[in-house]
Amino acid sequence: MAAMLVLGIESSCDETGLALCDSERGLLAHALHSQVDLHEAYGGVVPELASRDHIRRIVPLLRKVLADAGARAGDIDAVAYTAGPGLAGALLVGAGFAEALAFALGVPVLPVHHLEGHLLSPLLAAEAPRFPFVALLVSGGHTQLMRVAGVGRYELLGETLDDAAGEAFDKTAKLLGLGYPGGPQLARLAERGETGRFALPRPMLRSGDLDFSFSGLKTAVMTLVGRQALDEQAKADLCAEFQAAIVEVLSAKALAALAATGLKQLVIAGGVGANLALRAALAAGAAEAGARVFHPEPALCTDNGAMIAFAGAQRLAAGFAPKPAGGFGVRPRWDLQEA
Ligand code: KG4
Ligand code: ZN
Predict the structure, then answer these.
(1) Domain for residue 84, yes or no?
(2) pTM of the predicted model, to two decimals?
(3) Are 46 and 165 members of one domain?
(4) Are 239 and 150 in contact (CB under 8 A)?
(5) d(CA 256, ligand 1 centre) in Å
(6) Which of 112, 169, 278 most suits a substitution to test ligand 1, by most atoms within 8 Å of the C-beta?
């Protein structure tokens, strides 16, 4: 197959990301606008504001990636975009723009599953895993363990029964009066705290399966916070305990997934994958099990366009047919195994 230039567009939540990926030369350019400042005042993502901001950012970001890659719009061979899961209005901005641009250019489109983007993003790193591998997907919306046999070949091994790991971080951070987004702030405060002062559960640690549950942890923190006034050190200690609980469960189950599949490569993807305590625990556990851990480049851990452009290019290379532009819908809820 001749080299194809794929434009990728991500707009499922609060980041507008665009990128150009060449099926042979790899990632050529990517640009991102984060809406963190926009939503900060509200303590969380306001969907309608997110949609409107995507509209404002998308064309300037396209111009930027074209300029950075030294390409023209006419060079684009296919347009990949996040078709779900995510916020319906935000997804529609990316999908509408992608479909219209592809129609105007006379090229096909590749609707991409957001989690497939995260899942394949470690393949863009200098040290990339090879199929098959186990992936731990930990984002604001999802916590899943997958067996990845190849592009488009994903087997769900286990997932959260309620809150996602990132969601638990964010909700707990909010309870403690930390800013938005809470995950990184809670992690930063945890560095100054000590575990052992507060008792928090390790939900489903011994459930014997690969599923998770994090909503009880948030409730346990709420109970502790309601019972006493916390000074700064106590807050830091509580953050440290909370992070340790999540990290312990995530790493135990990820290692159990390696044991259950007999695989020796573990990929960590999604925003929570940026958590340093989680990285350290997994590195130590994997080393003990004779396995290796792979991460996306730090800039590609959270939502971005590069992973969507790359997933699109990978799908093309794997022989998945793109679809003609025009006539589209988005899937705010979408199981990866149906992708
Ligand atoms: O993958 P992502 O950017 O967006 C979704 O698809 O959800 O993940 C965002 C999530 C948020 O919940 C954020 O709080 C969390 O990842 N996160 C972290 C850290 N950095 C981001 N959680 C814990 N520790 C971090 N260092
Ligand atoms: Zn994501």
Answers:
(1) yes
(2) 0.92
(3) no
(4) no
(5) 23
(6) 169
Amino acid residing at 224: L
Residue 87 Cα to ligand 2 middle (Å): 12
Residue 136 above 80 pLDDT?
yes
The answer to whether residue 124 sits within a structural domain is: no
Verify that 216 and 330 share a domain, yes or no.
no
Q: What integer best gives the mean pLDDT of the chain?
A: 95
Same domain, yes or no: 88 and 33 = yes
- DSSP H stretches of helix in the chain: 36-40, 47-69, 88-105, 114-120, 165-175, 182-190, 215-227, 232-261, 276-288, 306-317
- Do residues 134 and 245 both lie within one domain? yes
What is the share, in percent, of the chain residues with pLDDT greater than 70? 100
**CATH number, position 46:** 3.30.420.40
Domain shared by 258 and 327, yes or no: no
Q: Is 169 in the pocket of ligand 1 (CB under 6 A)?
A: yes
- The string of pLDDT tens digits covering residues 244-255 is 999 999 999 999
CA distance 159 to 143: 6
Same domain, 79 and 180: no
Q: Is 273 in the pocket of ligand 1 (CB under 6 A)?
A: no
Q: In whole angstroms, what is the distance from residue 114 CA to residue 143 CA? A: 13
Q: How far is the CA of 139 from the centre of ligand 1 (A)?
A: 5
User: Would you place residue 298 in the very low, low, confident or very high pLDDT band (cuts 50, 70, 90)?
Assistant: confident
Q: Is 279 inside a domain boundary?
A: yes
Q: Whose CA is nearest to atom 14 of ligand 1?
A: 183
Pocket test for ligand 1, best of 302, 304, 307 (most atoms within 8 A of CB): 302
Strand pairing partners for 82? 112
User: 167 C-alpha vs ligand 1 centroid, how far in Å?
Assistant: 8
What are the tens digits of pLDDT across the range 141-179? 899 999 999 999 999 999 999 999 999 999 999 999 998
Q: Are residues 20 and 77 in the same domain?
A: yes
Answer yes or no: do 145 and 280 share one domain: yes
DSSP of 56-92, one letter per residue? Answer: HHHHHHHHHHHHHHT--GGG--EEEEEEESS-HHHHH
Total of domains in the chain = 2
302 lines ligand 1 (CB under 6 A): yes
**Domain extent for 95:** 5-119+301-338
C-alpha 263/C-alpha 265 separation (Å) is 6
